[in-house]
Design a protein that fits this description.
This protein is an alpha+beta fold and about 475 residues long. About 25% of the residues lie in helices and about 15% in strands. The strands form 8 sheets. It has a 3-stranded mixed β-sheet with strand order 1-12-11. Strands 6-7-8 form a 3-stranded antiparallel β-sheet, covered by helices on one side. It has a 3-stranded antiparallel β-sheet with strand order 10-14-13, with helices on one face. A hairpin with a 5-residue loop joins strand 7 and strand 8. The radius of gyration is 23 Å and the shape is globular.
Amino acid sequence: MKTIRLLSLAAAGLFNFSTMVYADIKIGERPTVNKHLEQSKIESQEIPLSAVIKHGKKVFNARFNELDGQGRPASTGGGAPRNPHDQPAFIRTSGPDSNSCSGCHNQPALGGAGDFVANVFVLAQLLDPVTESISPNFSNERNTLGMFGAGAIESLAIEMSNDLIAIREKAQYKAYQTGSDITLPLLTKGISFGSITVSPEGIIDPSNIEGVDWDLIVKPFHQKGAVVSLREFTNNAMNHHHGIQTVERFGKDTDPDGDEVFNELSVGDVTSATIYQATLPVPRQKLPRHPKRQKAVDQGENIFNEIGCSDCHVPSLKLTSRFFIEPNPYNPTGNLQLSQAERQVTWDMTAIGQRGNKLERYGNGAIVRAFTDLKRHNLCDEDFNHFCNEQLVQGSLIGFATPEDFSIPPAPRPTEEFLTRKLWDVSDSAPYGHRGDLPSMTKAIHFHGGEARESRDNFFELPQAKQDATIEFLKSLGVFHNN
């Protein structure tokens, strides 16, 4: 597999847009996305990075219509066939429920979070017939998260997955060599994911793995940690929310949704949308202008660490490599695989970033100041169970096969566990909580029980002035700063 690194250079001026595949010129109604990118020309750099990002923004912002292939009368949001008769063109609960990606990801700007009105109903898209009910019996209601800094987050997850899988393989080898059970801690970038035990026969005991699926692939997207990459996220969302079937997911020259539109988005289109999202601005801290607030931010940062918030909201994690890679080596089936790409496309995240917001370089790597550990935690106890409202299991803790083909069956992802929320965009991402039903940071802290109970109690035992300083610190984290 060859690797190329894309540079955003004046070479973009040499790009001939005739290399893009144009639909026939039409007068009147026409598709919103009326030209499609070829993956091979992205990989060969015939289409430069600046043009790829520009096209990706158009795909992300497109208000799809029926000529694009919007709608999926003959398939569910999971891609299963269904009776096409009497299916709604749009329905808030089961989807298609949106005209565009930016319809939900728009606050305070394109690529950001969503208001409560933009909530989605996870798993309802699988139902046939579709449901009009928002009952938790049928779906898990979730607020739309911001995508700022998403390229860095995906890169962190890849490196952490590499480490965890290497530990598993080391345990397997040592167990075989020694003829005895081997238990090793699952530690990556200072984050503990429990431990793993392997017998000399290669049988893996996953019972002490914590906060990650049993396949040890860190999945940084979806609030349950269920999606590997921006690419998988995009392929899923196109079908679920818009009724747009991508070629790589559904096949070339096919019409699985029965709308008589073929090849609705090309492989190159998905690459461009992925790269656009990966280059969205990296959030950063900015001190307020007023000296009183500046002092409060400094004090609040110290308090945040002292009361234990930083145990899960880890202020920074280091990347060994500062280069984003596409496609992701852990992409599941139905998403572009490394074996399907002639070249893996990469670029320097410390050199390229929208609005000039790039990662901070650290040696050959970078520092990601995201305030997360990318691990699932349980924030519920008998006093505070606001975050335990969900009833439906989203996917499973995927199992894996041993060298002797002993297979551990998948186990349910705990309904009460959620990924540690990234705080580096917290000032731009209200409302809070996985359902978006908490309008203030203080209210969100109030409902931190379970694993976060001690930190939560520490916060509310502080005098009001120190609570206010902690909130002022959090308000300094974001992309768009209002002082």
